[in-house]
Amino acid sequence: MRVFRYPSPPPSSITPHALWLSRRDLLAAGAAAGLVGGILPSRAARAVDLAAQPGPLSGEGLKPTPLRDVTHYNNFYEFGLEKTDPAERSGDFHPRPWTVRVEGMVAKPRTYDIDALLGRKLEERIYRMRCVEAWSMVIPWIGFALRDLLAEVEPLGSAKYVAFESVVRPSEMPGQGGVLPVLDWPYVEGLRLDEAMHPLTILAVGLYGQTLPNQNGAPVRLVVPWKYGFKGIKSIVRIRLTDRQPRTSWNVRAPDEYGFYANVNPAVDHPRWSQASERPIGAGGGFFGASRQLTLPFNGYGEQVAGLYAGMDLRRDF
């Protein structure tokens, strides 16, 4: 039986055990910074504590990006184009009531209520997050393996891909309005089925020990740590299994810049900037971060996921 091993972070990313803050201490620090519930701005829905077991990357693992930066430096174009827009403009978004429909090439299609998802056995997964814009964070997500959810609906043998769809609510998401939207809505994403079934792929329902803030994709989002951040679709309402490669929002918008796979690859530059290095957000200096660091292939998860792409030309299939 093969034992799945999670990657060991580099020594520079490890927090000494004596300095590791408990979740309670972290939340208290957030509250001291003026955040209601430790995370959310005052006008957003109140955060709820989540019971989660430490995952394989918790404890003596990666050093998380400061909470304030994780929740106030975001790309979520449904709320606007600036990094501060999601936190400032998501207060009218209502993540309840909420359901996620799982359908398509499955034996048992099912609709999941958000309370059922929150009531699952949850894990804390501390993952690197690399944005295609060449900045990065380390985020302590709360969630569960996507493969566990997919197993419950019993994918058919003909299913090859998993398509994801986000919510459309222009009355609550001001970035979805306007005459010239930056993207076609809803936001859509996709994975190959084997990528979706990989143990590292999760559906996140929280971060830093509480439910997701609106600006981070409440109430449920995808996290695939070896891919660029735009693959992590937020505020999911539908998951569909299919035999055809699904359309994805940024690939439709600019296919020469954003591929379907979007694996973190320092050897393949974006047409307008280098992907060889990244700027860690919050590492020693608020939003501006520390000095740049080299980007790792597959965002440091190559030992676990490189085999998924054996024989592929990752310059062509970017």
Automatic annotation (TrEMBL):
| Any one Gene Ontology molecular-function term assigned to this protein's record | molybdopterin cofactor binding
Q: Which residues belong to any copy of the Oxidoreductase molybdopterin-binding domain?
A: 94-250
Q: Which reaction does it catalyse?
A: L-methionyl-[protein] + a quinone + H2O = L-methionyl-(R)-S-oxide-[protein] + a quinol; L-methionyl-[protein] + a quinone + H2O = L-methionyl-(S)-S-oxide-[protein] + a quinol
Q: Which Gene3D superfamilies match?
A: Oxidoreductase, molybdopterin-binding domain
Alphabetically ordered keywords of this record? Metal-binding, Molybdenum, Oxidoreductase, Signal
Q: Would I find Transport among this entry's keywords?
A: no
EC class (word): oxidoreductase
Tell me the residue numbers annotated for binding Mo-molybdopterin.
74, 77-78, 131, 166, 216, 221, 232-234
Record's family?
A: Belongs to the MsrP family.
Q: Outline the subunit composition.
A: Heterodimer of a catalytic subunit (MsrP) and a heme-binding subunit (MsrQ).
Function of the protein: Part of the MsrPQ system that repairs oxidized periplasmic proteins containing methionine sulfoxide residues (Met-O), using respiratory chain electrons. Thus protects these proteins from oxidative-stress damage caused by reactive species of oxygen and chlorine generated by the host defense mechanisms. MsrPQ is essential for the maintenance of envelope integrity under bleach stress, rescuing a wide series of structurally unrelated periplasmic proteins from methionine oxidation.
Q: What is this protein called?
A: Protein-methionine-sulfoxide reductase catalytic subunit MsrP
Q: What is the lineage of its organism?
A: Bacteria, Pseudomonadati, Pseudomonadota, Alphaproteobacteria, Acetobacterales
Gene it is expressed from: msrP
